[in-house]
Amino acid sequence: MKLPRTCPKKAALAALAGVLMALTVLPGCKKPVKPAAPAPLKPAAGVTTAVVTATNLPAEFVSVFDDSPPPGNKGRDPFNPDSTLRNPVSEAPKRTDAVARVDPQLRLYSVTGSPGRWLAVINNQILAVTDPATPVRVPGGTVMVKVVEIGEDYADVTVDGGAVKKRLTMGQRK
Predict the structure, then answer these.
(1) Residues 61, 74, 66: CA angle, nearest 5 degrees
(2) How far is CA 132 from CA 7, 24, 79, in A?
(3) Which residues pair with 157 in a beta bridge?
(4) What's the pLDDT at 150?
(5) What is the SS3 assignment for 142?
(6) N or C, where is the chain less crowded by C-beta within 10 Å?
């Protein structure tokens, strides 16, 4: 196999360019000279040396976060002194049994099914007589409702496990 005449000329030209590049780069590639290390100081006879570490922090300012209860630290956050988050919270008044409960607003929207298998829709919750006490949403929270009896246009329920039955009829709020 013969090579064309231009190949050896191009190879020679590339080799020459590589040699010229190497000659221009090599003088700048000297090993760095390390500075001479200073000779250690020898202490004079009878003199002791102390080790001193230099810091940028003044010794008089030390930041300590005291997370103890407020009587000890007065409830002050050292990083945010104007904060009131660490102040003691007053206790909320406790409910007593003497406070009358507000009667929940239950509404019977519809009754569907067949005799013996009635389903009642109370406050958008579908309930049957066989269901256990079920949470039902009312304004101000939820109450546990147990359906005792369902008729064609009424439903008898107990609220929050009470013994008193309440009769809900269609379109009536109670």
Answers:
(1) 45
(2) 96, 94, 54
(3) 147, 166
(4) 92
(5) strand
(6) N
How many contiguous H segments (helices) and E segments (strands) does the chain have? 2, 7
| Block residue for tokens 């590049």 | 21
Reading the block at residue 60, the tokens are 């008089």
The model's pTM is 0.42
Count other Cβ atoms within 10 Å, centred on residue 15: 10
Q: Which residue spans within the chain are E strands per DSSP?
A: 108-114, 117-122, 125-128, 134-138, 141-150, 154-159, 166-169
Angle at 93 between CA 87 and CA 98, to 5 degrees: 175
What number of residues does the chain have?
174
Residues near 89 by beta carbon (within 8 Å), at least 6 away in sequence? none
pLDDT tens for the 174 residues of the chain, in order = 565 666 677 888 888 888 888 888 776 666 666 777 766 666 666 655 555 666 666 666 666 665 665 565 565 666 777 777 766 677 777 655 443 455 678 899 999 998 888 999 999 999 999 999 999 998 888 899 999 999 988 999 999 888 888 999 987 655
Name the residue ranges covered by the structural domains of the chain. Answer: 108-169
- Structure token digits, residue 11: 């190879």
